[in-house]
Amino acid sequence: MIKKFILNCHLNRFQFSNTLNNISKTLYLINQRLGELNTEYEMYQEHTIKGDMNEIKRRRMNELQPKIHIYKQIQASVSVIEDAKQLISLGGTSDEISMLNEEIQTQIEYLKKYQDEALTQLIEQDEYDHIRQLNVEVRAGVGGSEGSLFAEDIIGMIQNYASLQNWDCRVISIQKDTQIGKGCKTGILQITGDNVYQQLKCESGVHKVIRVPETEAKGRLHSSTASMIVLPKVTDNFHLSDKDLKYEFMKASGPGGQHVNKTESACRITHIPTGIQVVNMEDRSQERNKQRAYQILRDKLFAIHVQEKQERMAQSRKSQVAGSDRSDKIRTYNFPQERITDHRTNLTMYGMEKMLSGELLGEFIQKYQEKIHNAKLQDLLDELSNENKK
């Protein structure tokens, strides 16, 4: 009897908004935004009926579906609450009143859950987080040969973390430090797996080490750096114009061998608008070196494109999230003290061996992701609040 009455009662708009506002101001603002999206969704439904849909509209409609699902759940819960209140006002037995109050509390708990789900859905997502393949490029920075030894440690840390995540990790190239016959002047890894870009994108930047170098006879501490760039796999709709590329071929240089300095197999490609250059001489074939150089250049330019787009998104939200720049010093590894400090989140952990084995890296990544999420959440709440004041 009660359930039938609840389903058949109707709310006016004032009652509905008042109920939401009393439960949560945030929920009230969220419902307004979801209502706007529902209007947009209904428009696409009309286009579907008329047969006037294209791929862009269809993709947008699919993006809206989970948000609209939450919107309808909110409507249903508030309707049940208002109908229960009306029944209470009509009077009834103590058991009936108690049951109705329990129903109201149950629906309020549902609404709290819907609020969290809606906030997650409404927060602006990185459109490239779905990318499952990327290259990690690590370069030795300041510190001479010690910098190349540290770069080798960073390469190993990423390989170990990839293994813990069950990602496929392949070494594309490792250029050793010829002065010491080891270390890594430049190293490139190709990593494939679920959530790989979503996690590793925050590792782009300068990593600093404090320790006594192997070559230090007097036992003095030195500071060295290694830089990391995370290059997501290029999407199919990202193209380079031939008129923007300059190709040059030259003799390969290296430690010696039959083909070194005898054939013009090495290829250098310059992207004229940006001045970015890529040289590849890994293969004896000029054509294969050309293809590889083009692929590396395309990856670099796509990474810049992604970064610039993310920066524009942050500026439009007026977010000031430290560490978004690839040139920022993001983390310091203090070997004597076994201390690792992330300068973007102020998270400090101890245990250098666990860090380099990849065991602690996930906690640093998670902490940074939480910071980004909270910043986006605050931006969203500020945006909703400002819209309500207009």
From TrEMBL:
<comment type="similarity">
    <text>Belongs to the prokaryotic/mitochondrial release factor family.</text>
</comment>
<dbReference type="InterPro" id="IPR050057">
    <property type="entry name" value="Prokaryotic/Mito_RF"/>
</dbReference>
<protein>
    <recommendedName>
        <fullName>Peptide chain release factor domain-containing protein</fullName>
    </recommendedName>
</protein>
<dbReference type="GO" id="GO:0005737">
    <property type="term" value="C:cytoplasm"/>
</dbReference>
<dbReference type="Pfam" id="PF03462">
    <property type="entry name" value="PCRF"/>
</dbReference>
<feature type="region of interest" description="Disordered">
    <location>
        <begin position="313"/>
        <end position="333"/>
    </location>
</feature>
<dbReference type="GO" id="GO:0003747">
    <property type="term" value="F:translation release factor activity"/>
</dbReference>
<feature type="domain" description="Peptide chain release factor">
    <location>
        <begin position="85"/>
        <end position="203"/>
    </location>
</feature>
<dbReference type="Pfam" id="PF00472">
    <property type="entry name" value="RF-1"/>
</dbReference>
<dbReference type="InterPro" id="IPR000352">
    <property type="entry name" value="Pep_chain_release_fac_I"/>
</dbReference>
<keyword id="KW-0648">Protein biosynthesis</keyword>
<dbReference type="InterPro" id="IPR005139">
    <property type="entry name" value="PCRF"/>
</dbReference>
